[in-house]
């Protein structure tokens, strides 16, 4: 039976335990593609317009956070319910006393995120959409990140992950195509070394007592200076040399563009401090640049840093960066 777009039915589907993934059909669509559907065409249109207005964070050019399409329907067709990211909009003044958002994973297919937006009326939905905006972003992005992490569990480069473990005592699931590696002192650079674009992950460790201004805890702005110092000393150039091995004033080196950087702070009880940041980087002395995302974690008397960055002139960078970001979230200490 084709599922109807009823409020009660949606709640049951979203809170029920999903079937065995092996028994579910494969969802259709690419990463960050979103289909908005429902029987109230005004409400569907409002949610679609909102999602289309959202821009991906910290990229050098404007890119939509999601690729959004819509279809107005009273029921979910077999093709519609297998969409990778499905947003179902329902308005019902009898069954829905207030506006709410409920999300579920792998409801009809796998991988899949289903988000139900339920409101008493179109007018109430329009009034509440501004406060629901971030929740919609978070649910859809979290779903894609979780799918990417699950995929990395099955499809990561074992040799690269073993190298990270042997050098830094931590687990990191590195994408399979980042096969080229270069090492320095407490530094590892992994890249796909693409001909027209490049994806990279760098892992490094810095002891507090090796720094001019040691800090007992992480400081976000201070970590930018530590990052740039490490990259300037270790990151290979196009010729394969590290900047510190080159002579003269015009040696290229990587630095983060301070005014573009935003931070996320995470801490919990006795857990070591973790600082996350994203923004833009540039290669001083060249025209290279692009987006980056970093995690810095205090490990005893040192800082463990992991940075992912992309160089892809003239190309979309959203999905490239988000896949690398998912890799960073697999970071786990061995202890």
Structural notes for this entry:
By secondary structure, the protein is of the alpha+beta class. The chain has 2 domains: about 5-155, Chitobiase, domain 2, CATH 3.30.379; about 155-335, 3-Layer(aba) Sandwich (Protein Transport Mog1p, Chain A). Helix content is about 25%, strand content about 30%. The chain contains 6 helices and 15 strands. It has helices at about 5-15, 40-55, 120-155, 160-170, 220-235, 320-330; strands spanning about 35-40, 65-70, 85-90, 100-105, 115-120, 170, 180-185, 185-190, 200-205, 255, 260-265, 275-285, 290-300, 300-310, 330-335. The strands form 3 sheets. Strands 7, 8, 9, 10, 11, 12, 13 and 14 form an 8-stranded antiparallel beta sheet that branches. A 5-stranded mixed beta sheet has the order 2-1-3-5-4, sandwiched between helices. Helix 2 (about 40-55) crosses helix 3 and helix 3 packs across helix 6 (about 320-330). The longest helix has about 35 residues, at about 120-155. The radius of gyration is 23 Å and the shape is elongated.
What's the short story on this structure?
The protein is an alpha+beta fold and 335 residues long.
Q: Approximately how much beta-strand content do the residues carry? A: 25-35%
Q: Count every beta strand, where a strand is a DSSP E run of 2 or more residues.
A: 15
Shape: elongated
Low-pLDDT stretches are: 242-249
Number of domains: 2
Distance between the termini: 50 Å
Mean pLDDT, all residues: 86
Which architecture of the largest domain per CATH?
3-Layer(aba) Sandwich
CATH class of the largest domain: Alpha Beta
Count the DSSP helices. Answer: 6
Order of helices and strands: HEHEEEEHHEEEEHEEEEEHE
CATH superfamily of the largest domain: Mog1/PsbP, alpha/beta/alpha sandwich
């Amino acid at each position: 039976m084709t599922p109807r777009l009823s409020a009660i039915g949606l709640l049951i589907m979203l809170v029920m335990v999903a079937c065995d993934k092996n028994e579910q059909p494969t969802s259709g669509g690419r990463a960050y593609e979103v289909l908005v559907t429902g029987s109230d065409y005004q409400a569907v249109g409002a949610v679609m317009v909102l999602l289309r207005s959202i821009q991906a964070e910290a990229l050098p050019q404007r890119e939509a956070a999601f690729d959004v399409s819509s279809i107005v329907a009273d029921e979910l067709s077999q093709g519609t319910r297998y969409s990778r990211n499905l947003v179902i909009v329902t308005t019902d003044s009898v069954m829905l006393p207030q506006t709410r958002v409920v999300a579920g994973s792998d409801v009809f297919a796998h991988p899949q995120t289903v988000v139900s937006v339920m409101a008493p009326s179109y007018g109430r939905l329009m009034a509440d959409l501004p406060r629901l905006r971030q929740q919609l972003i978070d649910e859809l992005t979290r779903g894609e990140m979780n799918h990417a992490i699950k995929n990395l569990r099955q499809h990561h480069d074992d040799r690269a992950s073993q190298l990270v473990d042997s050098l830094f005592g931590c687990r990191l699931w590195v994408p399979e195509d980042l096969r080229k590696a270069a090492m320095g002192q407490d530094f590892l650079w992994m890249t796909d070394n693409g001909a027209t674009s490049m994806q990279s992950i760098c892992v490094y460790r810095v002891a507090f007592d090796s720094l001019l201004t040691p800090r007992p805890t992480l400081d976000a702005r201070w970590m930018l200076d530590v990052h740039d110092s490490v990259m300037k000393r270790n990151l290979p150039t196009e010729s394969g040399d590290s900047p510190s091995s080159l002579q003269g004033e015009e040696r290229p080196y990587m630095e983060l563009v301070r005014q573009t950087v935003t931070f996320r702070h995470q801490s919990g009880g006795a857990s070591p401090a973790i600082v996350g940041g994203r923004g833009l980087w540039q290669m001083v002395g060249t025209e290279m640049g692009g987006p980056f995302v970093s995690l810095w974690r205090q490990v005893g008397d040192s800082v463990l840093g992991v940075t992912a960055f992309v160089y892809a002139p003239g190309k979309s960078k959203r999905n490239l960066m988000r896949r690398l970001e998912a890799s960073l979230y697999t970071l786990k200490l061995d202890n």
